Amino acid sequence: MSQKLYYWLALTSNGELQRGESIGNARQHVYLRLAQKGYQPLRLRYRQTLTQRYWKVTARITLFKQVAALLQAGLPLLNALRLLPEQH
């Protein structure tokens, strides 16, 4: 399944506006992830489908370093991989 990049605008629990980007398989997944963080999504806009060209060499290196750090911290691989989309 292809990954998609979404831009979002949401209210925090303090009533502050927060903007960001999230990667997900579908709009609903990104919406749920924001709600789980305690955000009230106001706008969620599809930006682009992320192809292999999107993941440039430096981005891949960063990703692998992050996975390595999480694994060295003792997280199981599946948990580490689940945390990564929240950071990107």
**How would you classify the helix and strand content by structural class?**
alpha+beta
Which stretches are poorly predicted, pLDDT < 50 over at least 5 residues? none
- Strands, count: 3
Strand order of the largest sheet: 2-1-3
Number of helices: 3
Round the mean pLDDT to the nearest integer and report it: 88
| Rg, Å, rounded | 14 Å
The coarse overall form would be globular
Terminal-residue CA separation: 18 Å
User: Tell me about the biggest sheet?
Assistant: 3 strands, antiparallel
Number of domain modules: 2
Strand content is 25-35%
Secondary-structure element string = EEHEHH
Which oligomeric state applies? single chain
- How helical, in percent, are the residues? 40-55%
Structural write-up:
With 88 residues, the protein is α+β, with helices and mostly antiparallel strands. It has 2 domains: 1-54; 55-88. It contains 3 helices and 3 strands, in the order E-E-H-E-H-H. A hairpin with a 5-residue loop joins strand 1 (3-11) and strand 2 (17-24). The longest helix has 16 residues, at 57-72. The chain is globular, with a radius of gyration of 14 Å. The protein starts with a strand and ends with a helix.
